[in-house]
Design brief:
By secondary structure, this protein is an alpha+beta fold. It has 3 domains: 2-107; 113-310, no CATH class; 324-495, Glutaredoxin (3-Layer(aba) Sandwich). It has helices at 2-15, 24-30, 37-47, 112-119, 121-138, 144-163, 172-175, 180-187, 193-196, 199-217, 222-246, 251-266, 277-307, 324-333, 364-380, 399-413, 417-428, 433-436, 444-464, 486-495; strands spanning 51-55, 67-71, 77-83, 86-89, 92-94, 102-106, 108-110, 310-312, 318-319, 353-359, 384-390, 471-474, 477-479. The strands form 4 sheets. It has a 4-stranded antiparallel β-sheet with strand order 2-3-4-5, covered by helices on one side. A hairpin with a 2-residue loop joins strand 4 and strand 5 (92-94). Helix 5 (121-138) runs antiparallel to helix 6, helix 14 (324-333) packs across helix 20 (486-495) and helix 15 packs parallel to helix 20.
Length: 497
């Protein structure tokens, strides 16, 4: 069942062009307790962005996403594909009424180009590097300087790809080369020239054009490249001044500037300035190729970033991942678990909502829960029947810890709930003075009640296979630990008039 769930989610991610390479997702799914749409969402949202939980009960067929995870009437997860002629599960058509109204869907739709760039960046870089190296060795350029110049063109192309890393956003190989300071410099638009002139596209176009014209004209093009290399110094000065102005240093920009400077030094042999038709025609060809590539790369980048990057889904449905109404439905549709018949620890005999807390003073999760529980008791304490029980191993625990639990049980037996709740909060803060000052002097009858209290609690734990804390029951229904504790207040509020 859980193995099939992982395959279903893997197909859902693939259909929505969402990448996830974290193997912990499969492990978390295999360790999932109760399989319902909310628990699946909680696990999946830990590893995948841009998904949410929706109530589609009021949505029409046209308003549904193309692919989503739902459950059938038997609460079994299914992957649903929307086509022009209806909804399909494994190519079998089914009616919308056969699907429960709550689904997991992508909030955004990735373009195919964006998905491919993310998934195959490593392969693309390897292929281009190998291709350039073969061409570099195959072309027998006459000068060592020319070979070094072409090699620097390859390096410049790679650096330019890094400066356009928004195309490879989720790829760690490229992201590791660039720090946050690089992003600040590259994304800043403080200078007006940068609002319409993308230096990342400019550098990529420049180095690609160099490679193309060298492959076409070989050593005949170097007099043209020499003159253009000197012009590139102007952009080096702009880049350095801009980084000084921002007080941020971009490593990619500095390395790119170094490549341009080295290319200028290697072009020193062509320092004499002359004009003839051959030089002019090659300069015109270089300029035309540069402008054409610049326009194409700019359009591709614009398309990927704006048009195809993230297209919003038109799901006219209500997000319910933190909706207490929906959580309440899940809770109160689950089977009942009756708590042990422990002492009534509420301040009143009014029984409208029962709240059972199985907790431990050494549990970090119980500490988190207690902060929310305190607010619930302050606001609704008189309308709740609250019972506490404790997760403790008497055989392996230290006597000092056992004594603390016995003191807490004695407070409940003596109906000292406010004191009990205060000291329990102090224990969660690692303040032991309050309970150490509490004198443990039970009568014989109270001592018997304490022993029965823990015996009954342990029997209940074994019978229901509850070997963890915190464990919460609301009106004898389990409030799963997969839910956020912040929702607990809202659920209780809905139940109390």
């Amino acid at each position: 069942m859980k193995e099939n769930l992982f395959l279903l989610i893997d197909k859902f991610l693939g259909n929505n062009r969402i990448l996830n390479e974290d193997k912990n997702l499969e492990l978390d799914l295999l360790s999932l307790g109760s399989i319902n749409i909310y628990n699946i969402f909680k696990i999946l949202s830990k590893y995948v962005k841009d998904i949410d939980l929706y109530d589609i009960s009021e949505s029409t067929l046209n308003e549904l996403p193309k692919t989503f995870i739902g459950t059938n009437k038997r609460n079994i997860p299914i992957l649903v594909d929307k086509k022009d002629n209806g909804l399909f599960v494994e190519n079998i058509k089914m009616s919308a009424s056969a699907i429960e109204p709550y689904i997991i869907a992508s909030t955004q739709e990735n373009s195919l180009m964006k998905y491919l760039l993310k998934r195959y960046t490593s392969l693309l870089v390897t292929f281009l590097g190998t291709f350039f190296l073969i061409l570099f060795l195959w072309y027998n350029l006459l000068s060592v300087n020319q070979k070094l110049f072409m090699l620097l063109s390859f390096v410049g192309t790679f650096l330019a790809l890094l400066s356009n890393k928004d195309l490879f956003e989720s790829n760690s190989i490229l992201n590791n080369f660039c720090s946050k300071k690089c992003s600040v410099v590259q994304n800043s638009k403080d200078w007006k020239i940068l609002k319409f002139l993308d230096f990342g596209v400019l550098s990529l176009t420049y180095f690609l054009t160099q490679i193309i014209v060298i492959l076409l004209f070989r050593n005949d093009i170097f007099p043209v490249l020499a003159k253009i290399s000197y012009i590139s110094y102007f952009f080096v000065i702009i880049s350095v001044c801009y980084q000084i102005y921002l007080k941020k240093i971009c490593k990619i920009c500095i390395f790119t500037s170094a490549v341009l400077l080295l290319q200028g030094i290697l072009s020193y042999d062509y320092k004499e300035f002359y004009i003839n038709w051959d030089l002019l025609s090659k300069t015109i060809f270089f300029s035309g190729a540069f402008l054409f590539l610049f326009y194409c790369i700019l359009m591709i980048k614009k398309y990927v970033a704006n048009t195809g990057f993230y297209k919003k889904e038109s799901i006219k449905a209500k997000k319910i991942s933190n909706n207490p109404e929906y959580i309440s439905r899940i809770i109160f549709n689950s089977s009942k678990i009756f708590p042990p018949k422990l002492l009534d620890t509420s301040d009143t005999k009014i029984e409208k909502v029962t709240l059972f807390i199985y907790t431990s003073i050494t549990c970090n999760h119980c500490r988190d829960l207690h902060s929310y529980l305190s607010q619930i008791i302050d606001d609704f304490g008189e309308k709740l029947d609250i019972k506490f029980s404790f997760f403790i191993d008497f055989e392996d625990s230290e006597q000092e810890l056992i004594l603390m639990y016995k003191k807490l049980a004695l407070m409940l037996i003596r109906d000292e709930f406010q004191r009990f709740h205060h000291i329990l909060g102090e224990l969660y803060k690692d303040y032991y003075e309050s309970i150490n000052n509490y004198t443990f002097n039970p009568t014989q009858e109270e001592n018997i009640k304490i022993l029965n209290y823990f015996a009954e609690s342990n029997h209940w734990s074994d019978h229901n296979n509850v070997y963890y804390a915190p464990f919460i029951l609301i009106n004898n229904h389990h409030f799963s630990h997969e839910f956020d504790y912040s929702i607990l207040y809202n659920v209780i509020e809905r139940l109390t008039p």
